[in-house]
């Protein structure tokens, strides 16, 4: 049996086992593979080092998981607002402006993003896993909106015992 005769779902399952660079190269095999890869939703964790790569990946693929380096700025984040998983840890240029677009992310790591404040964190209550460790501008004011998170890391944030009472539904809490 030829691979082309397989269901697109089976081809996608096989492609999910490929490394990211192998998946991207598979686009060159034929038009069917190119179409499947363009329209498929991929669980590969994509590391973005600059704006040019970000623009290419966002327009050519549908990836769920991104690790962004500190060169990524607020204006780039709008392109990624519907993604599943982000790791922005130590991204020094990320501010409240971009965090406002990330409220529907499933997993979000904003650890050590020093410019993030209560203003945007209030909007992250729908995140399943949220890491705000080392974000010293986070206070009790925004923490009360995070009670629906499943996993929450507030280590080294500027919070008091007052806000902890709002987190009774959080399953895993790091303080």
UniProtKB/TrEMBL annotation:
Q: Name one GO cellular component term.
A: SCF ubiquitin ligase complex
InterPro entries for this protein: F-box-like_dom_sf (IPR036047), F-box_dom (IPR001810), Leu-rich_rpt (IPR001611), Leu-rich_rpt_Cys-con_subtyp (IPR006553), LRR_dom_sf (IPR032675)
Ranges of residues in domain F-box: 1-45
A Gene Ontology BP annotation from the UniProt entry: SCF-dependent proteasomal ubiquitin-dependent protein catabolic process
Pfam families linked to this entry? F-box (PF00646), LRR_6 (PF13516)
The transmembrane segments are none
Q: What is this protein called?
A: F-box domain-containing protein
Recite the lineage of the species. Answer: unclassified sequences, metagenomes, organismal metagenomes
